[in-house]
């Protein structure tokens, strides 16, 4: 790229911290570094025109685990571990809300529901363990998290009782990211879009960074590329594409809240009198292990089928838009937040909970750096 003296001097010289990726994690990392080191020069490099992974593509559930998910986690984790997992999501949501403000992200606590199939015994299993789970989580809210409600939404092909989480909320994902990006700019942090970091190498006191457009040098490099992390050599993370659709506005839509279906493999919510519906990765785990955006007929057909048969059986609706996002997953649910080499760090593998934990993980990534 043909860069001028001015461009090099003002944007690409004496960089203290370079962050790769402008999702929730990268931007919160940048803000936390600025808080710790107000005089530092901080540069964020982002391959997309906008953040282009999961942070602008997600469903905007401000959730910390459905009843069946928490019960399932107890099969592989101790009670204390599950408690800490949930606590982290609640703490993370608190950081998100206090950093950006509820009005700026349109946070609404409309509650979260879980639908159960009629054809298996998941309802009975969850129902019988509800008291135990409420007891486990009691110290976090001083109240009972889960109760049961009868299906007042007209859902079909599901159990007549739904579990209800009174503390689950939802946000407007676009407002959240817009506010976050603005806050980063206002703090004097630079973001360069359409820049892909291709390689980096450690020098004695710095890191050399090669992008698709230029090369530069930085004192520290922080990688927040989540589902794309293997592209920069972080092998613990696999990409996981998640497909979504949204209906056109529906008159008198009475479905309000966030909803989990089929043990969290499907999720839907109301937004602007529409239903946003996503999931179905379990239909083709291998095929969805990709960093390529796109939709498949198989998953989109199943989403439409469930919308017609279960969620909106007696309502005429039209699909307005379809899209996908790329998450980062791995063997364990815990994110990878660690130092990779002398001057390089990463905060990746956020799974399907990045709205909840992303702000906190960004701060933790920044706090790995020594002054
Ligand atoms: C469809 C969908 C629905 C979801 N729903 C929810 C939900 O309801 N609630 C919830 O809590 N979570 C949800 N999630 C998960 C959540 O969105 C993510 O966990 C979170 O956004 C991850 O943030 P991040 O900053 O780690 O990653 P990302 O937002 O993916 O950011 C990584 C950034 O790095 C950039 N990048 C990658 N490689 C390079 C490179 N080499 N050079 C430069 N830039 C690069 C990417 O373009 C991207 O912008 C959902 C995810 C998806 C896809």
What does this structure look like?
The protein is of the alpha/beta class and 371 residues long. Among the domains are: 5-50 and 174-236 and 332-367, FAD/NAD(P)-binding domain (3-Layer(bba) Sandwich), CATH 3.50.50; 251-320, no CATH class. 32% of the residues lie in helices and 27% in strands. The protein has helices spanning 5-11, 24-36, 67-76, 79-100, 102-105, 122-141, 173-186, 297-311, 354-367, and strands at 15-20, 42-45, 61-62, 112-115, 146-150, 161-165, 169-170, 190-192, 197-202, 207-211, 215-223, 238-247, 258-261, 266-271, 274-279, 319-329, 336-341, 344-348. The strands form three sheets. Strands 1, 2, 8, 9, 10, 11, 17 and 18 form an eight-stranded mixed β-sheet that branches. Helix 4 (79-100) crosses helix 9 (354-367). The longest helix has 22 residues, at 79-100. The model has no long low-confidence stretch (mean pLDDT 97). This is FAD-binding oxidoreductase. Residues 16-368 form the FAD dependent oxidoreductase domain. InterPro entries: FAD-dep_OxRdtase, FAD/NAD-bd_sf.
Most strands sheet: 8 strands, mixed
What is the helix/strand order?
Answer: HEHEEHHHEHEEEHEEEEEEEEHEEEH
Task: Work out the strand percent.
Answer: 25-35%
What would you report as the Rg, rounded to the nearest angstrom? 21 Å
Segments where pLDDT lies below 50 for 5+ residues? none
Distance between the termini: 33 Å
DSSP, total strands: 18
Quaternary organisation: single chain
Give average pLDDT, whole number: 97
- The CATH topology of the domain at 5-50 and 174-236 and 332-367 is FAD/NAD(P)-binding domain
Look at the helices and sheets and give the structural class. Answer: alpha/beta
């Amino acid at each position: 790229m043909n860069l001028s003296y001015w461009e090099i001097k003002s944007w690409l010289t004496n960089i203290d911290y370079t962050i790769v990726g402008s999702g929730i994690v990268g931007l919160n990392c940048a803000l936390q570094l600025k808080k710790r080191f107000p005089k530092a020069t901080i540069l964020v490099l982002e391959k997309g025109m906008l953040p282009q992974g999961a942070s602008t593509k997600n469903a905007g559930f401000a959730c910390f685990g459905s009843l069946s998910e928490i019960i399932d986690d107890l099969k592989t984790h101790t009670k204390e571990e599950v408690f800490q997992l949930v606590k982290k999501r609640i703490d993370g949501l608190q950081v998100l809300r206090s950093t950006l403000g509820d009005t700026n992200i349109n946070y609404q606590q409309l509650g979260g529901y879980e639908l159960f199939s009629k054809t298996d015994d998941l309802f009975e299993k969850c129902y019988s363990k509800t008291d135990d789970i409420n007891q486990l989580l009691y110290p976090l809210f001083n109240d009972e998290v889960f109760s049961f409600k009868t299906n007042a939404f007209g859902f079909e092909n599901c159990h007549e009782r739904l579990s209800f989480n009174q503390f689950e909320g939802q946000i407007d994902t676009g407002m959240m990211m817009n506010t976050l990006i603005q806050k980063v700019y206002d703090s004097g942090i630079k973001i360069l879009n359409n820049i892909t970091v291709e390689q980096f190498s450690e020098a004695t006191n710095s890191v050399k960074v090669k992008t698709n457009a230029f090369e530069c040098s930085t004192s520290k490099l922080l990688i927040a590329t989540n589902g794309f992390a293997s592209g920069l050599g972080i092998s613990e993370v696999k990409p996981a594409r998640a497909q979504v659709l949204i209906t056109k506005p529906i008159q008198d839509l009475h479905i309000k809240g966030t909803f989990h279906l089929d043990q969290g493999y499907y999720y839907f919510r109301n937004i602007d009198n529409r239903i946003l519906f996503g999931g179905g990765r379990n239909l083709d785990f291998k095929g969805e292990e990709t960093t390529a955006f796109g939709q498949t007929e198989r998953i989109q057909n199943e989403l439409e089928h469930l919308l017609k048969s279960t969620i909106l059986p007696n309502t005429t609706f039209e699909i307005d838009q379809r899209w996908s996002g790329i998450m980062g997953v791995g063997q364990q649910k815990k994110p990878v937040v660690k130092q990779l080499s002398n001057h390089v760090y990463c905060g990746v593998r956020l799974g399907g909970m990045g709205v909840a934990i992303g702000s906190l993980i960004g701060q933790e990534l920044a706090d790995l750096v020594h002054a």
